[in-house]
Design brief:
The protein has three helices and 18 strands. The protein is mainly beta. A hairpin with a 2-residue loop joins β6 and β7.
């Protein structure tokens, strides 16, 4: 199995959006993350970076010429071509290459790029809520939504390519990759096992924003800071499974050892592109000694 000699230095999320929803998507995500837009670059201003006040950027937007868009990941390396060769050896498909850039698809079909490393490795500070003193949010997770039969090979591919640690989850439909302790990385990768497959659609991705309340109690959803509209609550849906660049989950801070995180759905959100996201009205920690029952909310 592929194994990197050291953990991946940096990862960037690209939101690939159609022109019709680009402006609203940028407005939404700059508000959610407390960032501002860089000068546009590329043909006709195709690319833009969401820059934090301090630290290195790890969220960018790319306008796509056709299709609904989605999410792809940039993997930063001092030698992107060597990284790409390792990815192909582990099952990735080579799509395009030029000096300093290699475009590939993972074994499950998720787009990724091997690019040159320019970041210094400084993770931006979380965003504080003016209306809720002591509460912060941080975009810190990419969830890979895997159709039946694709989670295990996708997990093995990304574990080997990143050199990150596999973290056990209490819910059988999830697997987690987290950068090793002591390393400074802005993102972790969550893998979700979907119950059904969509014809012609492989692995897709959506984002997760973590909420931390200073009081340590239940954390409400943080999407309100973005001005997103709230739709009808979806009772019984632990995690919204709609794919697309605009979907995101609002997660609580990490539980104490020996506890799991339980999410209770409070409602759905939609970003500027009209894609669904999740608002967790309640998020609390439960000791692992409790058994799971079908009536329980979803947890990870």
């Amino acid at each position: 199995m592929l194994a990197m000699s050291r953990p991946l230095p940096w990862m960037t999320v690209f939101l690939d959006v159609p022109a019709a929803s680009q402006a609203e998507t940028e407005r939404f995500w700059t508000a959610v993350t407390g960032t501002h837009l860089s000068p546009r670059r590329g043909p006709d201003g195709t690319f833009v970076t969401l820059r934090p006040p301090r630290g290195d950027a790890y969220l960018r937007v790319q306008r796509v010429a056709s299709g609904p868009g989605g999410i792809h990941l940039d993997l930063h390396s001092e030698d992107p071509h060597a990284l790409a060769e390792a990815a192909v050896a582990a099952g990735a498909v080579l799509m395009y290459a030029e000096p300093g850039l290699v475009v590939l698809r993972s074994p499950g079909g998720l787009a990724l790029c091997a690019v040159e490393l320019h970041e210094s490795g400084v993770v931006p500070e979380p965003l504080g809520w003016p209306a809720s003193e002591g509460t912060t949010t941080r975009l810190d997770q990419v969830c890979l939504d895997c159709p039946p039969g694709l989670l295990e090979p996708e997990l093995a591919f990304w574990a080997g390519l990143t050199g990150w640690d596999e973290i056990p989850c209490t819910a059988e439909e999830f697997e987690l990759l987290r950068p090793p302790e002591g390393t400074s990385r802005p993102l972790q990768l969550l893998f979700q096992r979907l119950e059904t497959a969509t014809p012609g659609l492989g692995v897709t991705a959506h984002l997760g924003c973590r909420v931390r309340a200073r009081s340590g109690g239940p954390s409400g959803g943080g999407g309100g800071a973005s001005g997103a509209g709230r739709s009808t609550p979806q009772r019984g849906a632990g995690l919204d499974r709609a794919a697309g660049a605009g979907r995101y989950d609002v997660l609580p801070h990490r539980p104490r050892p020996g506890h799991r995180t339980v999410l209770t759905t409070g409602g759905a959100l939609r970003d500027g592109g009209g894609r669904a996201g999740l608002l967790c009205r309640h998020a609390y920690h439960r000791p692992l000694r409790h058994s799971r029952r079908r009536s329980d909310p979803a947890w990870i």
